[in-house]
Amino acid sequence: MAYEAEGRKIAADLRAQCGKLLEARLESKSPSRIVLVFEKQTITLPGNFIFQFGYSGSGPDCFHAFLQESGFSVTMEQVTGAKEGDILKP
Questions:
Q1: Model's pTM, two decimal places?
Q2: Which of 69, 32, 38 is nearest to 50 (CA)?
Q3: Angle at Cα 64 formed by Cα 36 and Cα 40, nearest 5°?
Q4: I need a labelling partner for 27 at 20 to 30 A (CA). Which of 16, 34, 55, 86 fits?
Q5: Tell me: the pLDDT tens digits for 20-52?
Q6: Do residues 60 and 79 touch, judged by C-beta distance below 8 A?
């Protein structure tokens, strides 16, 4: 549950700073590379960042909570089943 709370907090902080999240580009799984495209800026997350995809675990739990808090209608199955090259949108 702590990971989900952290994902929601990160979403709120980034929304205040960068505007609405428009898409999440899942560029690499190992190491994780996720590009977040916001209204005001694009952020590339480093490989050691807590957001992960493509498996079940705390990283995908946190990323799922982040996406939901950002207004995305994604299921946990979509996050755990995501592949490199996928682009998630609200």
A1: 0.93
A2: 32
A3: 25
A4: 16
A5: 999 999 999 888 899 999 999 999 998 778 899
A6: yes
